[in-house]
Specification:
It is a multi-pass membrane protein. Belongs to the insect chemoreceptor superfamily. Heteromeric odorant receptor channel (TC 1.A.69) family. One of its GO terms (cellular component) is plasma membrane. It contains twelve helices and no strands. It is 73% helix and 0% strand. Helix 6 (109-126) packs across helix 9 (266-327) and helix 10 runs antiparallel to helix 11 (382-392).
């Protein structure tokens, strides 16, 4: 019971001082910068060559694994072992995700730092506003924190199950199995070597060590990147919500009679300054979302483009693997779990992308519904209102070479393509 209460306190940040004026990005999300550092971005000594150590080392090891998986893929084709081929090809595509991510983050280091600086500025500014803005902003930040805990627990559990499905039978063989059972030592992933046995000592021990290493690298890169996508997209979504809140109260508590006074009258000048300050904050927030999307497109564009291009193939092969095992009376729990994780990690940014696109259009509607047509005060910021409404008609989306809009329509198209490929493979196999 005490452990449950401890997890509950962590999950809801019950010990965090939400009312403190010193709330910032680092003390609310201490995990963010720590998770970005292994991707090759340092925050103190930003130009240190040590930042390349982890990405380069992991990428070199990944390329070795890619070569080994390509050998296995070719072997599966030559022997017509399609189950072996599909599993190895899935791992091949998954492994190549890692160097694509490292390359994209390292090349666009300045864009990542700019996004983090902008988020830090949003924290400091919004947390010193009124309760309405502050409470709504921190509520969304708490949602991001909760997603981080759930997602990392999920991806870590999947990695643990991968280890467990190998270590349990290996323990059985080491302690209980007899010599006449003629069992083969299990491995995390299928292995094959030309003119050699990958399951003999010391080949088996070497492969087992590196396979466990690759699982940890994948969790540290793939798992972290999905969280970063969610964090940055939800942060921008929250900023758009604050823009809508500002439009709802843009003309509140202002004297409408000043419109009929001289332009240089002190009362009118004061109201004009208040309106200018309010619309300036709206424009600054709205523009910051577009800037953030441009930076996010440069960082995540290559990664998402890679996912969109290869995900249908991986999906259809995973579904084929599951269906093939089901015909034999077995449920491949490992691939079923892996398919669920991959489906979620693609659905999540597409879903949030659709929310952001619709929320961007909602900004234009909020501007139109801000009672500008019922108050003479709208004459004082008419041009600004028109500009914001025009800008809000531009859809929010990541722009990158050959990258479609990040939306549920894209997700539906990917899943349809994957199902079509799956049916084609099933028919040809029959």
């Amino acid at each position: 019971m005490g452990i449950f209460k401890g997890f509950k306190r962590i999950f809801f940040k019950e010990n965090f001082e939400f009312s403190s004026p010193d709330v910032d990005l680092d003390n609310f999300h201490p995990q963010l910068r720590r998770l970005i550092v292994p991707l090759g971005i340092f925050f103190n000594n930003q130009d240190s060559f040590l930042r390349f150590l982890n990405p380069v080392l992991n990428s070199l090891m990944i390329f070795i694994a890619v070569v080994m998986e390509m050998i296995c893929v070719i072997h599966g084709i030559q022997t017509l072992d399609y189950s072996f081929f599909t599993e190895c090809f899935c791992y091949l595509v998954m492994l190549l995700y890692v160097p694509v991510l490292y390359f994209s983050v390292l090349v666009n280091k300045d864009s990542m730092l700019e996004i983090l600086d902008q988020m830090e500025g949003d924290f400091k500014f919004i947390c010193n506003l009124g309760d309405k803005h502050r409470d709504h902003f921190l509520k969304r930040q708490l949602l991001i924190w909760q997603f981080f805990l759930i997602w990392m627990a999920t991806i870590t559990s999947v990695a643990f199950l991968i280890f467990l499905r190998t270590l349990i039978p290996l323990t059985y063989q080491s302690l209980i199995a007899t010599h006449d059972e003629h069992t083969i030592r299990p491995s995390l992933f299928p292995m094959w070597l030309p003119k050699d046995d990958p399951y003999r000592t010391p080949n088996y021990e070497i492969f087992m060590f590196f396979q466990m290493y690759f699982v940890c690298v994948y969790v540290q890169s793939f798992g972290v990147n999905v969280y970063i996508q969610f964090h940055m997209l939800i942060h921008n979504y929250t900023i758009l919500e604050l823009v809508i809140i500002d439009f709802e109260m843009i003309f509140e508590d202002l004297d409408e009679d000043v419109v009929y006074l001289s332009r240089y009258h002190p009362r009118r000048v004061l109201i004009q300054r208040i309106l200018n300050k309010r619309i300036q904050r709206i424009v600054a927030w709205h523009d910051s979302v577009f800037t953030s999307f441009d930076n996010l497109s440069s960082i995540q564009g290559p990664v998402i483009c890679y996912q969109v291009l290869f995900t249908p193939i991986v999906y259809c092969l995973m579904m084929f693997q599951i269906a093939d095992k089901l015909e034999g009376g077995q449920l491949d729990i490992y691939f079923a779990g892996l398919l669920s994780v991959f489906t979620f990690q693609l659905w999540m940014p597409c879903y949030i992308g659709s929310l952001l696109r619709n929320k961007g259009f909602d900004v234009g509607e909020a501007c139109y519904n801000s009672s500008w047509n019922t108050t003479p005060l709208s004459r004082m910021i008419r041009n600004d209102i028109v500009i914001v409404m025009s800008r809000a008609q531009q859809p929010l989306s990541m722009q990158f070479f050959c990258l479609p809009d990040l939306s549920l329509e894209t997700f539906s198209s990917i899943m349809s393509s994957a199902y079509s490929y799956f049916n084609m493979i099933r028919q040809s196999n029959n």
